[in-house]
Amino acid sequence: MTIEIERKFLVVGDAWQKLATRRIAIRQAYLASDSDLSFRVRVRDGSSAQLTIKSRGAELRRSEFEYPIPTQDAEALIAKRRGSIIAKVRHEIPWSGLKWEVDVFSGDNAGLVIAEIELQHEQQAFEMPTWIGVEVTGRRGFYNSALALRPYCVWSQRQDAGRVA
After folding, report:
1. Which terminus of the chain has fewer CB atoms gathered within 10 Å of its CB, N or C?
2. Mean pLDDT across the chain, nearest whole number?
């Protein structure tokens, strides 16, 4: 088991794009969830897949269990999903000794761009890039499991996305 300590932010502008060192196409789907856990299957670049179990809360610190699975099995599980498929391209960006991940969503979540940074502990200091906007850590609507059930395309006020819970 790993503990994931992650902060999430909306992205402002496109200055981050020239800094990306790696891009990964991701398709993922949620299989089941309850008040405590979510079960996700993810395919990366069409060539590798994993099953992930995460504690469900949208807090800064969450438990995470990840297991590699055959891509063919992942595709079969995606077909049995709850809600929409989450499609995005993840861009990895090194910044001041840490790695930011900027997810550019497509499909039902097109137009949404979120940056994430994983930390060693909750109080870890880090330099904020200029392209980072409003923090959305803990706002359930911005978590992939919520986006699968209520995609960005149905939000009534996208321009005020920072207020979505």
Report:
1. N
2. 91
